[in-house]
UniProtKB/TrEMBL annotation:
<feature type="domain" description="Bro-N">
    <location>
        <begin position="16"/>
        <end position="132"/>
    </location>
</feature>
<dbReference type="Pfam" id="PF02498">
    <property type="entry name" value="Bro-N"/>
</dbReference>
<protein>
    <submittedName>
        <fullName>DNA-binding protein</fullName>
    </submittedName>
</protein>
<keyword id="KW-0238">DNA-binding</keyword>
<dbReference type="InterPro" id="IPR003497">
    <property type="entry name" value="BRO_N_domain"/>
</dbReference>
<dbReference type="GO" id="GO:0003677">
    <property type="term" value="F:DNA binding"/>
</dbReference>
């Protein structure tokens, strides 16, 4: 990420190689940059050291970068009357290095991607020693506008390094995209499997609940058979009917209108199904009474041994059965 500042025309004309390409060729990465009004560039030392493989940025600066080429962020910006860039990553005490400091760190790096740049730097030094100067070739196509900066051809080693790095980055991007696509496919398959597992579990639970209800009904029948066998000889056990149940309840307690309304609704269910599993809300809807009043009526019937409790259903509704003598 770059933090551009307005630069002078002279600074533009003297920058023969775009600074972003230059740094990319040197480090193999796009690092943050502060460009001062006079055209000088400063880079966060931590960014450069990270890309070059220096684990301890402070030690790397102390070993390879003279003090003249490193400074803290507040001092650099303050010298030009500029404010600290926004964002918590730009701290006042952040160590910055100039372009020479960056090159010195690159020269101390053993990273393979830095080799073309270091080779070009060695060529520049050898050329200056032999010929007294080093100059870039002017680009074949020059700007037509008067006063426009002169364009120079990028050194072959630098250009090749940029091409190789860009190609490497494109491969990494493609691999990352493929990995993300595979991850999405796996996530979808996992979600589908979870849904199928959940559906199977629900089906299994429904079967188990049905089996429990069937076993409870069988138990009730067995209880009835036991009572029948225990009955004295000559006495015939008569299965209850709705009418006989209601008649029995009238004899056991003084039935009010509300209690009778509830009794008329639940008696057929108890006789035909052997148990009552309806939620209180369902009974209230059928009787026109409140849930609270329905509950009071059921408690009264239970108190006078007309019905007895058998726990609760899966949905929390109380379960009642007939309390046969």
């Amino acid at each position: 990420m770059n933090e551009p500042h307005k630069r002078s025309d002279s600074a533009e004309r003297h920058e023969a190689i775009d600074i972003s390409d230059f740094v990319y060729a040197a480090t193999g990465a796009r690092v943050r940059r502060l460009t001062m009004p006079d055209g000088t560039h400063w880079f966060p030392a931590v960014d450069v050291c990270k890309e070059l493989g220096h684990s301890n940025s402070r030690q790397a600066l102390a070993d390879h970068v003279p003090e003249a080429h490193r400074e803290c962020l507040e001092t650099v910006t303050g010298a030009y009357g500029l404010s600290i860039p926004a964002g918590r990553e730009w701290r006042r005490d952040m160590n910055l290095i100039d372009l020479q400091g960056l090159i010195l760190l690159v020269q101390a790096c053993t990273k393979a991607a830095c080799a073309p740049f270091k080779q070009w730097a060695a060529e520049v030094i050898e050329t200056v020693q032999r010929e007294g100067s080093y100059s870039l070739e002017e680009a074949e196509v020059q700007p037509a506008d008067p006063g426009a900066p002169i364009a120079y051809a990028m050194p072959e080693q630098v250009a090749e390094a940029i091409v190789r790095l860009e190609a490497h980055n494109l491969r990494l991007d493609e691999e990352l995209a493929n990995g993300q696509r595979e991850s999405i496919v796996l996530q979808r398959e996992s979600i589908t499997l979870q849904k199928e597992t959940l559906a199977t579990q629900k089906s299994t639970l429904a079967v188990q609940q049905a089996m429990v209800r069937a076993m409870e009904r069988i138990a009730d029948r067995l209880d009835a058979l036991v009572l029948e066998r225990r009955a004295p000889r000559g006495h015939l056990t008569v299965l209850p009917t709705t009418e006989s149940v209601l008649a029995d309840w009238r004899q056991r307690l003084s039935v009010t209108e509300d209690v009778w309304t509830v009794a008329v609704v639940i008696a057929p269910v108890l006789v035909e199904e052997g148990e009552l599993r309806e939620p209180l809300e369902a009974i209230a809807a059928r009787t026109g009474l409140s849930v609270r009043r329905v509950n009071e009526c059921l408690r009264l019937l239970h108190k006078h041994t007309c019905i007895r409790s058998r726990g609760a259903a899966e949905d929390g509704a109380p379960v009642y059965v007939l309390n046969q003598p």
